[in-house]
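tmp note - 4-hydroxy-3-methylbut-2-enyl diphosphate reductase
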Amino acid sequence: MKILIAEYAGFCFGVKRAIETAYQEIEKNKKGKIYTLGEIIHNPLVIDDLFKKGVKVIEEKDLEKLSKGDKLIIRTHGVSKKLYDFLTEREVEIIDVTCPFVKKVQNIVYEYYNKGYSIIIVGDKNHPEVIGVNGWCDNTAYVLNSIEEAKKMPQLKKACAVAQTTLIEKHWEKILEVINTKVEDLIFFNTICDATQKRQSAAEELAKKVEVMLVIGGKHSSNTQKLKKICERNCKNTFHIEAPKELTLDMIKEHEIIGVTAGASTPDYVIEDVLKRIKILKGEDKNE
Ligand code: SF4
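out:
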């Protein structure tokens, strides 16, 4: 039997940094409560573990309940400027793990908005990252996610366009072409982070070579669902599992070349546990 792991699988740089920081804060914390604003990642195993260690999830509407000395972890997606100001006023300790790539987008938007440019964000208006970025230009951005939406945009004198970090390059390019016809003086920044693209391409390549493909990740993680779809197109025996125990012998017993990939919210230890379970089920590890 051969187990092949996709070249890029699991945590990206930003998520890894965020989770490591959360665990370091738990170690350091002597008093005060630790919260994360929304789930730090879409992985119930990690959320449960953090909860057991005293980290609670709080939603934006409940932030009023925080008081001086409480700690709030701001996740990789980042938040609006208004929210930072609100937390600072309440003397909440901010542990900011906004991904540096997202921070860069926020800084660009803030700078050009203050220089008098209209702001255009290409991305999903409901995505927390886009909501946060829009909060650096007083929520005045034109948020576009399709050519149709771009065509409906009014003519602008000068504007600055940025991309949601997880956009697909081609999608951005097509929409940007339309935006170009709508703005007299356009400055744009391709702020796409290639972590998602690399993970998807690696999964696609691997799925073509194997007999069965295992996609590990949270059931509600959209990037994991996307990986599953990509793998299904290239390998008919594709299974999405959240936890190692979901892997059954039936899934792999007929196959000798097994591929493994994992969504951005899957920790390394879960991937390793799945690898161990494959070996146990196939009778190549007798240590259970
Ligand atoms: S996908 Fe890219 S931008 Fe998003 S958290 Fe990961 S490294 Fe940062």
